[in-house]
Amino acid sequence: MSAARIHRMGSPEAIEINSVDTPIPAPGEILVAVYAAAVNFPDTLMIAGQYQVKAALPFVPGHEAAGVITAVGDGVTSHSPGDRVAVLAPGAFAEYLVAPAGAAVPIPAEITFAEAAATWVCHLTAYHALRSTAEIRSGDNVLVLGAGGGVGLAAVELAASLGARVVAAASSSEKLDAARRKGAHATINYTEGNLRDGIRAALGPGAIDAVIDPVGGPHAESALRELRWGGRFVTLGYASGEIPRIPLNLILLKGAVVKGLEIRTFAHHDPQNASRDRDEFTALWRSGRIRPLIHARFPLSQAREALELVTNRSSIGKTIIEVVSDYTISSEEH
Q1: What is the DSSP string of 103-126?
Q2: Which end of the chain offers a freer environment for a tag, N or C, measured as fewer CB atoms within 10 Å?
Q3: CATH fold of 2-120+270-322, please?
């Protein structure tokens, strides 16, 4: 099979398209023919050797895919060959991948492979952050930083669906336009003015119930300072490349709750809420109320270009690597 592989840490230029053996599913695993895979910002950090977990070289990047099961390992009864599934597993930028059977969920008939691949990681991360970590309630004021990226835009859409009043902050008018289309009540371009001033103009001082932050960097502290007393701040990642140092006295004075969410380990540490969130999100997804914004598509041979688009923060919503092009383009795409 063909696979995009990394033989040395660095930039997306390190990607090579190689011919490798098709994997065989072990007991409890499934083999999936990949139709589409989504590029996420952590993929770029992993390639650069800057992610929290280092992958052994050589490796196939990508963790989010959708396709058709072609074989199952011993003991698998939950899935069968021919099933259309979305999968959260490493090695997604290839024609086939193996994954634990529990890492796959059925794709509703009306959902394309591209939409399925573009939904699972970012939307489920955002749902866990909102539902279990920040414990969002209807009527809450929620600030989403990095609202034009995959997780940020998903958080805007899902927070609005939970009844929150969403303020979206991002770095361009195009990203903020996308956030408004996904339900943001107010928007802030933090390259054109002071973030705190923008928050106060939208909500008044100290009015934020929860912050969802997948970006880190200099805006994290400004957002924290505008929490109401007892507000919640959720850190999801550091797409800015800068891990913020927060003065602890702010936590004391605000009575704030600061929590982290790491999608790879959340289900292990909190299986009860993870299962509840997954069921709720899957039902919401199947209802058609949640649809990802797909910015661009690339063939597997151009995996390097797809990753460069995300690395340069030029992608609004999700960028897709399509391995098999047999589905129609969604009306949500640019």
Answers
A1: GEEEPPTTS-HHHHHHHHHHHHHH
A2: C
A3: Quinone Oxidoreductase; Chain A, domain 1 (3.90.180)
